[in-house]
Structures are given as C-alpha cells and as structure tokens.
Specification:
The protein is mainly alpha-helical.
C-alpha cells in the first residue's frame, strides 16, 4: 500500500489529528508530547502514522491486529485521561492489556503470551520455568538434576584452558559479564562441551555473552584465551552481527546485506526502505525531499546536521566555533580535541607527520606544525602505551597485539600457502607491506574487497600475475591502486597506463559506430593519426594526463561530428561546405578546434572536400596583471604558514612559467645542488634558483612524503609524490592545491611568460624554460619584445653627425686589432649581445646566428661588409687608419 504523503511528511501531526478526531476533549499539545515520547524515531513514527491513517478504528475499538507502537500509544493516552480512546484488549482472553505483548500481529496479556508446554520431568502441561541441558522445557517443580554450581564449573573450564590465569580473576570476570543465573548455566554447559570457543573459535558462539566473557578474560590477563577473528575479513575486531550461523564484524555484515539502491543504483547496505519497500542507501535517504525537516533556527526544510533539545538543526545553522588552532595558529573553524582539550582545525586533525618525541609516523594529535605529537606522546598519563607480547615494541595494543603484528598475521593469511611459503614474485610485496610506516592504513586497505580477493587468488595461483589478467577484471579505483602497488614493488613490470587506457577507450569508441565506413574512418583517424602522433611525441616515455586528455578530446570531437552528419543523412564525402559553415556558426569554440583537426586530416586523406582553415593563436585572452603576479610571489616567498609543496609549485608557476603537469613530473635528477647554489633543470639549460626557493626545493627532495602509504618503498624519485606508489602527484590535484592558496595556474603562467618574453630572447627562453622555440617566438611577438626587430632597428640607426674627426679617430684607435689582419678590426657586440661588426639586419632567434636581408647566414668582417648589391657604404675613416 502506498503511504500517504501527509503521513510521511508530518507523521506526528497526522497522528495528533487522528487522536483529536477520536477524542476531541484532549488537548493537542498534550497529545503531541505523548506521540513524540511513544512514537520513537522518525521511521517508527511514520509506520505508526501510516497504520493509523489506514485503520483509524483501532483507536476506538482497541482490537488487534495492530502494531506494538499503536498499543503503547493507546495505553499512554489512557494514562493521560483520555476517555474516547479504547485500551488494547487481549486477542485470546479478551482482558485489558496493561503491557503489550505481541505475537503474530495480535496483542496478548502476559499470561496468554507465554504458552504452556509439556514438562520433560513430570509430563504435565505447565508454564515453562527453564530448560535443561538438552533444551527441553521444565516446570518450576521439576528442577534439572544435572545443574550444579555453574560458576564453579565455568571457572574450572577457564583455568584448564589457561592455567596462568588465577581462579579469582576468572570468577571476577564471569561475575562482571553474566548477571542472570539461567545465562550462567547455559554458558557453563556450552563451554564445557566446546572449550575451543575460548581459543579462537568464538565466532561460532551461539550467543554473544561468550564474546563478552572472552573480552573480560583478556583484559584480566589471560594469554591463551584469544579474541576471535572475523570469519570473512580475518580481522580481530568486535563481532556484533550474526549471519549464516557465524559472528561477523559490522563491515562484513554490511557487505553481505548490500543491494542496489532503488534511486541511485549504488550497491550498498540499505539504510531504509521507501513507501514501496524498495531499498535506499544512506545518501539517498538523507537527500530525499521527504526526509528533510524544518530547522528550528532558520525555519527552512534542510538536511538534519544535529538534534538539539529544541529540535533539528541544519548544517548552516550549526557551524563550528571560530577558534585559534593549537597546531597551525590560524583562526578558523575548529573542534575541541577530546584527547588534549585544545582546539584543532580540520587540516591539522587529518595531518600525518613524524612525532617530534618518539619519531613514529602517525596522525598528529597535538603539538604544532614544527613539533607534532602522536596520540601516545600527547597524553602519556592515559596509559595508552604497552609492550606488544609478539614483537616487544611499545604502542597501543588491539586484541592483545600491535598493529604491525596484526599486519604480519594478515599477510601470512593472504599471501602464504599452508606451509607458510610465499611465491617468489610476491615476496617483495610481502616485505614492503609488512614494513610499511603506517600498518593501520595497510590493514584497512587489505580489508577492502578487491585487494583481499585479488591477493588471495594471486597467492593461490588461481589468477596469473600479469597485466592481461588484471585487464580482464572490471575497471575500478581499487584495482588501479592494486596494480600500482604491484608495479611499485616489482611484482609487475611498469607500463604506460594512460596510453593503455586510451587504446581501450578508442577500441570501444570505434566498436560503438553503426556503419562500416564510419568505423573505418574513425579507426584510421584515432589509431593511425592521433595515437601515432602521440607515440612520436612521447618517444618512449609515459603519457601525461594532458596529452591523453587532448587525444580523447580530438577523437570525441570527431565522433560528435560524424554523429551530426549521420543525423542529417550526410557523410564526409557528400557534406557541402554550406552545412559545415552552418555547424561552425552554431558550435562553440571548444568544439570547433578539435573538430577542425579531424576535418583537415580527412581533407589531407582525400576523404572530403570540406575546407576548415586553422585559427592562428592571437595571444592570451585574459588580463595580464604583473602587479598581482609579484604580490603573489612575495607572499609565497615569505609566508611560512603555507605548505612547502604549495609554495614551491606556486613559485615555479609565477617566476618560471611552468605548467602544473611539468611541475608534477619533476624528479630528483632535475635538481643540481652544490655548496654554493641550487640549479633546477626545466629545459636544456638549468636555471639558478634564488633563496628561499632553493631551500624549498631542497626540503622537498629531502622530506618527500606522499599519501601512498600502501606499497611505498620510500624510494620515490618524485619531489611531489602522489597518492599511488611510484607515481607523482597528478596535475589535477596540484592545480587544485594552487587554487586553494589563491593562484590560478593558467593566468599566472601567461603573465609570467608574457613578461619573460619581453626580457629574454626566444632562444634563451626556450632553452631555460623547456618550451618549444615556436612557442617562445610567438610569445615574444605577442609581448612586443621581438628581438629580431630590435636588432634590425639597431643596424638601421644613422651614425651621429656632430662628432669630430679626432673623436672618431680615438674611437677607432680603441677598437682591438685583428692579429691576422692589422687593418681589420675585431667585430664588437651590440646591445642585444649579437656581433655588430658588419651589416646586421636581424638575428635568428632559434640559433642566435646573424642573417642578412635575404635570410642567408652572414659572417662579420669588420665594418666593410659587402654582399653583392647589398653593399653599405660607410663613412671614410682611412685617415685614421693609414699606414705610416
């Protein structure tokens, strides 16, 4: 039955209206308070409202079938003085029910709820007082002869299992765990028959009191009694759920119950069900407009962030307090730490650093950025540090062992065979994961589904350890990370993943075309043009994310243009120029550029007669703000509160016009450090870095630490390592970090390149910054810093007129003589640094060589340089150079 919209939107108001209609004498405020107390949570209130809206006669007749919540509500209303509301009646004897007992949808009183059974001792049909060891019912007059003192029997079983535990400690643990004698008797019988439940098989316990007793005994000092591991994930963790007769952890229980969400399709554990009984995930549950509630502060229907005594409060009305963070010193929204009682911001609470006291790499729980403290050192009085019985190292123990011992045990279970041997190709992986700096992170990664299943299959030989075997699995982020871990540890050879993914994407794109001719054209363009040019460009190196994105964009544009032709009933060969002009006028700039590459290629291949001219770059379209550039550079040079990685990357963008993709792929080999200076090789020629940028680069090289805690061997060649082992930070992530500190990489690089092009020749600019010479020349022309024009202008300047002959003679006397020819002077240098001893018209910015008016290479021969008809007559100065 579909639930009424009013009952779902306002269940309390719906129930209040129904109660008021049945008993108008009751005050609505009193009824609302009773409904809120007896109705329970939101889900329970909705079920009650839907039930009463469908059958309101329950309130006046008091007859079941009905829910227990409806019976409790009717009892509470009768206690408040309601006369028009009927009390609930027993479905068996018809007496008034004061405490609702429900079975099969009907209400029963206490005597009728407990059904009598045949006693195993006397055979009479009586009320069951208890059950014997075989589970048979017995009345109060027939005690079980096998029932001795359960406490003594249980202590005896525990002491036999663990002789090192005193009997007094075992008895104290039992009394603290079990309160009822019937439960104590059942526990004694169970452990007497199955003592192995105390030594590791606790997951098979039929009731949870066994697990509580094991925890109490371990806390009391038992050494042979062990906490059970989860039968599915093999973690030693609280086993609070039961499925298929076994006690499992909460995560495994959630994965076992996972079903596709009815709204978003995500396979997760259902958080609730809609009116039709379909499962809903937690995200769809809280974002459903039906589940929005009115905030008591802003009076708007929003998602509930917290519930106060006054009512629900949304996230906007419940901000964090603005405090001064004890870690970084910033005045930002902070939360007070329960460990130290000091405010800490979100960034400091998530930071992982090396403890300034113990030297362990852990989450910084206290301290400052310069002197972080782990949780053990931040609160040593709490007694968190204990010696691990397995390895003897001090730390926090979980289930009687440290995390590293748990990690080693978990790796043995996943990678070793029954004899404890690990495959040779997986030994490096085993050693690397076991020696990880953060074993808790590795344990969490191994507990996820994909790595656990894959490592088990690889260790058992069920799946070959090759890239092709991993390619057969569905693509996912866990699989990608697992592949990077295997590559970083040497279990798999390295390969160009972006190029492989691009090839797979092209195969799918070509296969998705309907016509044979379109498939052939798209295959020729994608494989024999785009991919071939990409391979020529990378020259054996790995493809960058930008290169792969450009290739995908061009192929996608070709696919979209072919779809447009197909929708109009045209082909490349039959499409007229007018239709192309119409498409060009309607398409955006981002669509015209990539589609133009495809059309020009098709014309060169004689597949079409369409003409799509290329658009020449006319320079940057955004404002060139030099003052903003230097202001940001000064802030990054002197602001010590920013991270060194962000400062160094931002300065390379602002001062040296580097792209985030180039910065992310810098290696330690690009850094050349000596005792006097630090050089960074961005192009063919290294540049000398000023301070404090040089110190930041050296700091990154010495203290590089990425997020790849799983499989990272600590030998990363990247100053900016990324989240995957053996890989640098992605350009997208680096761009996001620059955005967070107020730097726009695109405009900032354009401004830097614009100003550098006005100050340096194109040849030097290309060699120093690692850009192509054509790019350097284009930027130099755009910035009006054309050095070729400057050289030609200097050569065309007329000589000064009002210079006396004596001064001219002294000038030529000061010119150095050529030893090979005393009458010929050595060529000098003009202001641009080029040779100026002859008829210099312009310089080649690619090579720095001199060219004449016809573009031919020239040699400087002093002043009197002639080249056929291009002879320049200089003023006669023979009087100053005559031989004696």
């Amino acid at each position: 039955m579909t639930a009424p919209a009013e009952a779902l939107a306002d269940p309390v108001g719906t129930v209040v209206s129904l109660v008021a209609a049945a008993d108008p004498a009751l005050e609505r405020d009193l009824v609302r308070r009773i409904v809120e107390q007896a109705g329970g949570g939101r889900s329970k209130r909705r079920r009650l409202a839907v039930e009463l809206a469908g059958n309101p006669s329950v309130l006046t007749t008091g007859r079941s079938p009905a829910s227990k919540a409806a019976g409790d509500l009717m009892i509470a209303l009768r206690a408040a003085g309601a006369t028009g509301i009927s009390p609930p009646w027993c479905a068996d004897c018809g007496r008034r029910v004061t405490s609702v007992q429900r079975r099969g949808g009907h209400w029963y009183c206490a005597p009728c709820y407990v059904r009598p059974e045949d006693c195993a001792g006397c055979g009479n049909t009586r009320q069951v007082a208890f059950r014997d060891r075989q589970g048979r019912p017995r009345c109060s007059k027939c005690p079980d002869q096998d029932a001795g003192d359960p406490l003594l029997a249980l202590v005896e079983v525990i002491v036999v299992t663990d002789p090192g535990l005193p009997a007094e400690a075992a008895a104290a643990a039992i009394e603290a765990t079990v309160t009822k004698r019937a439960h104590l008797q059942k526990l004694a019988w169970l452990l007497h028959d199955k003592p192995e439940l105390l030594t590791g098989d606790g997951a098979k316990a039929p009731f949870p009191v066994v697990l509580r007793l094991i925890d109490a005994l371990c806390e009391a000092g038992a050494t042979r009694i062990r906490r059970p591991a989860c039968p599915r994930c093999r973690r030693v963790i609280a086993l609070g759920e039961q499925r298929d007769g076994l006690r499992i952890c909460r995560n495994c229980f959630a994965r076992a119950r996972a079903v596709p969400c009815a709204k978003c399709g995500t396979t997760r554990e259902p958080a609730a069900r809609d009116g039709q009984g379909r499962p809903l995930c937690s995200y769809c549950l809280v974002t459903d407009p039906v589940n929005l509630e009115e905030c008591v502060r802003c009076r708007r229907r929003r998602q509930v962030s917290t519930r106060t005594p006054a009512g629900p409060v949304c996230a906007t009305c419940n901000p964090r307090d603005i405090l001064t963070c004890s870690g970084c010193g910033r005045t930002v929204p902070c939360a007070v730490s329960k460990l130290t009682g000091q405010p800490r911001c979100g960034a400091c609470a998530r930071s992982v650093a090396q403890c300034s006291r113990c030297g362990q790499l852990a989450t910084a729980r206290a301290g400052t950025r310069d002197a972080p403290l782990c949780g053990n050192c931040a609160a040593p009085d709490l007694g968190l540090l204990k010696s691990c019985p397995g390895c003897g190292s001090p730390g926090r123990l979980i289930a009687g062992a440290c995390r590293r011992c748990h990690l080693r045990q978990r790796l043995e279970e996943l990678l070793a065979d029954s004899a404890g041997n690990v495959r040779p190709e997986l030994q490096v992986l085993h050693q690397t994961l076991a020696a990880a700096d953060r074993p808790a992170a590795v344990l969490a990664w191994l507990s996820s589904g994909t790595p656990q299943t894959m490592l088990t299959e690889l260790a058992a030989g069920l799946r070959p350890l090759t890239h092709a075997a991993l390619d057969d699995l569905p693509a996912s982020k866990p699989l990608t990370h697992l592949r990077s871990v295997l590559v970083a540890t040497g279990a798999l050879p390295a390969r160009d993943e972006r190029l492989i993914q691009l090839e797979h994407w092209i195969t799918q794109a070509v296969a998705g075309r309907a016509g044979r001719q379109e498939k052939e054209i798209l295959h020729r363009y994608a494989v024999w043009h785009v991919l071939r040019r990409l391979r020529q460009r990378i020259r054996g190196t790995h493809t960058t994310s930008g290169q792969a994105a450009v290739a995908r964009r061009n192929i996608a544009a070709a696919t979209a243009f072919l779809d447009w032709l197909t929708a109009r009933g045209l082909t490349l060969a039959s499409c007229p120029q007018g239709d192309l002009d119409e498409w060009t006028a309607a398409a955006s700039t981002s669509q015209r550029g990539p589609a133009g590459h495809f059309i020009r290629w098709a014309r060169n291949q004689k597949l079409t007669s369409l003409d799509f001219p290329a658009t020449r770059w006319a320079g940057p379209t955004r404002v060139i703000d030099a003052e903003e550039r230097w202001a940001q550079a000064r802030r990054l040079l002197h602001d010590g509160t920013l991270k060194p990685e962000d400062r160094a990357a931002g300065l390379l963008v602002l001062l040296y016009a580097q792209q985030p993709a180039t910065i992310s792929r810098l290696t330690l080999g690009h850094i050349q450090a000596t005792a006097d200076e630090v050089r960074l090789r961005l192009g063919r020629e290294p540049v000398v870095l000023p301070e404090p940028l040089a110190g930041l680069i050296l700091h990154l090289a010495a203290a590089r630490q990425g997020h790849a805690t799983t499989g990272d061997q600590g030998t990363s060649p990247w100053p900016l390592p990324g989240g995957r082992p053996g890989q640098p930070i992605s350009p997208c992530r680096l761009r996001e970090r620059l955005h967070q500190i107020g730097i726009q990489p695109g405009p900032a690089r354009s401004t830097a390149l614009f100003q550098l092009a006005t100050e340096l020749p194109a040849a030097i600019l290309a060699r120093m910054l690692g850009i192509h010479i054509d790019v350097a020349v284009a930027w130099q022309r755009i910035s009006a810093g054309d050095w070729m024009t400057y050289a030609a202008d200097v050569s065309r300047r007329p000589p000064p007129r009002n210079i006396r002959a004596r001064h001219r003679a002294d000038h030529w006397k000061r010119r150095p003589r050529d030893p090979a020819n005393p009458r010929r002077s050595r060529p000098g240098r003009d202001r641009s640094g080029q040779a100026s001893g002859g008829h210099v018209t312009r310089g080649d910015p690619r090579t720095g060589q001199l060219l004449d008016d016809r573009g031919q290479q020239r040699r400087s021969r002093g002043l009197r340089v002639s080249s056929g008809r291009h002879r320049r007559r200089e003023p006669c100065r023979r009087s100053a150079h005559r031989r004696p």
